[in-house]
Amino acid sequence: MDDTLSDLFAVIEDRKETLPEGSYTASLFTHEKGENAVLEKLGEETTELVLAAKDDDHEEVAYEAADIVYHLLVLLSMKDMSLEDLEAELEARR
Ligand SMILES: N=c1c2ncn([C@@H]3O[C@H](COP(=O)(O)OP(=O)(O)OP(=O)(O)O)[C@@H](O)[C@H]3O)c2ncn1[C@@H]1O[C@H](COP(=O)(O)O)[C@@H](O)[C@H]1O
């Protein structure tokens, strides 16, 4: 899981840097979509996650959770934060 998250975060950071055409991630870092789109997605996906959990739909819970994690990592990158910031907070709670 650690590798999956850090690999995904590295891809997101690369998309932010290189802004390749056709990249959904890159579109979030431009005015095409921007921060509001990321925040809206996080809100929508959280609602969808709650509904999937209420239905006990494990496949849908995993799908929505993955959408949330991806957009959360994009948000961290937008704020010039890193996975280490998240890890430090989690570690501090142990
Ligand atoms: N993990 C993800 C990921 N999760 C979700 N999404 C996108 O987030 C959007 C989620 O929105 P919805 O579920 O609401 O789907 P939608 O109805 O198509 O929404 P709209 O974008 O049309 O508004 C979709 O366009 C998904 O493709 C993701 N896009 C990219 N990644 C990862 O980022 C990498 C780089 O992607 P690109 O930047 O597109 O090359 C990929 O290889 C993946 O590993």
Automatic annotation (TrEMBL):
The subcellular location is: Cytoplasm
- Return the EC number: 3.6.1.31
Q: Which GO terms describe its biological process?
A: L-histidine biosynthetic process
Q: In which pathway does it act?
A: Amino-acid biosynthesis; L-histidine biosynthesis; L-histidine from 5-phospho-alpha-D-ribose 1-diphosphate: step 2/9
Organism listed in the record: Natrarchaeobaculum aegyptiacum
| Catalysed reactions, as listed in the record | 1-(5-phospho-beta-D-ribosyl)-ATP + H2O = 1-(5-phospho-beta-D-ribosyl)-5'-AMP + diphosphate + H(+)
Return the HAMAP family for the record: HisE
Q: Which domain of life is it from?
A: Archaea
Give the family, as the similarity comment puts it: Belongs to the PRA-PH family.
GO terms for molecular function, please?
ATP binding; phosphoribosyl-ATP diphosphatase activity
Question: PANTHER family of this UniProt entry?
Answer: HISTIDINE BIOSYNTHESIS BIFUNCTIONAL PROTEIN, HISTIDINE BIOSYNTHESIS BIFUNCTIONAL PROTEIN HIS7
Entry's Gene Ontology cellular component terms: cytoplasm
Keywords from UniProt, A to Z, are: Amino-acid biosynthesis, ATP-binding, Cytoplasm, Histidine biosynthesis, Hydrolase, Nucleotide-binding
Protein name, as recorded: Phosphoribosyl-ATP pyrophosphatase
**What NCBIfam families does UniProt report for this protein, alphabetically?**
histidine_hisI (TIGR03188)
